[in-house]
Amino acid sequence: MTDQEVLGPIIDGKVVASGSTPKFKAIYPVDGKEICEIYSCGQEQTDAAVRSSEEAFKSWGKTSFGERAAVLEHIARIVEENLEYFAKNETLDTGKGIGESLVQIGNSAKIYRYFASAIRSHEDRYIRYDNGTASVVIREPFGSVGLILPWNAPSMLLSWKLAPALAAGNCAIVKPASVASRAALNMVLRFQEALPPGVLNAVTGSGPDVGNALVKHPGIRKISFTGSTAVGREIGELCGNRLIPATLELGGKSASVIFDDANIERAIQFVMLGSLSSAGQICIAGTRILVQSTIYDSFVEKLKTKFDTLRVGDPMDSDTQMGPVINKNQFDKVMGYIDSGIKDGARLVIGGERLTGGIYDKGYYIAPTLFADVKSDMTIACEEIFGPVLSIMRFDTEEEAVSIANGTEYGLGASVWTKDINRAMRVSQALEAGTVWVNFYLDSPAGSPFGGYKKSGMGREIGKIAIDYYSNIKNINISSSDDVPPIF
Question: Which of 36, 171, 239, 249 is an active site residue?
Fold first, then answer.
């Protein structure tokens, strides 16, 4: 399979490119080289994408559950048959390790298969009442829905949104992030062989321009957005003004609560996985590590040793464990947080600098950074950094751990590490987070609802309940009686 040479808006199954349309560049984060140019949307092309979607919905919205399931199975096969190609595109777009990309793309195929099974097994709800009436509760698709992707995991998060949207009978218009559009656009193109024209379109360009135009478009009936809390709030307001539903999966500042009876070696491995995957550029990153005082010092030293052995380098090398951050803007932001941690008095255990020499000179590589003796009111403990920076905090009691873990405006994820099942359940229920893992981290298989509390968003993805978030719920009440009631 070869790369698409010209990329841009995808309407009716074809790339729409115009010399008069502004273009932006796809840049490889490792060396800053241009991969390709991508045509951006104007309002005319956004309108055309929505019109195409509305026309396609006239037929697609009437398809049976079985027909939709067959399409989702077809998409899953496309992903599986082109796994390495899609993974390479993901790494070229984001700079994440090729091994991580392969896992994420493989998981996306499972998402499409899961929702194929979920919609195939769906049954509308029938309720019979004592007075001779009956009620049928059915799902109906919205119509055209807008799916706005982030730059950190575009291919996987496309599956999280597209699979339930199609399963529910909607047509979808995808808006990839401008700094990582290539992978998602090539995926949307390949999926066209499984779909009628217009069921899946894409618009391209900046969020403030094209993203807002999509959200404001009168033909769009629902929005799903993954990204920062600040942008999510703006999108939520726009959707609220239009009175259309929105699923918002936003920022995080997830805590890992490690008690002194935990399997420490296992906890350290998952702390590394949960905080340094994609160079820490994931919303669910477990970057607040709460460790019980009795094991605090030894835990810090063991984690420092693991940090020191981490293989940072070329993400196309299967031995690489961490690549660069995506661009200079993100690099400057992360380095600013590191400076803030030092100024606030946190102890820099390891890292904190830009890596230099060889491949490091061409990309924005940050040494995996570990702060200890962090206080819960420090900036690095409160704000989402989106980079390879961890904060280790100390606690004495279970109650103190819960208080520190919940002391943030975010509530996306958390983990609890203990061999005491009763404590694990108590703490898990007390934590204000949409997903809590016990004695592991970061695994969100198909079927498990994913979303946040507080400023981490609203709505759920991945689980079967996601189909409800892409559906109008209609209640049809039926009476079998011919009696004329004495109402008037």
Answer: 249
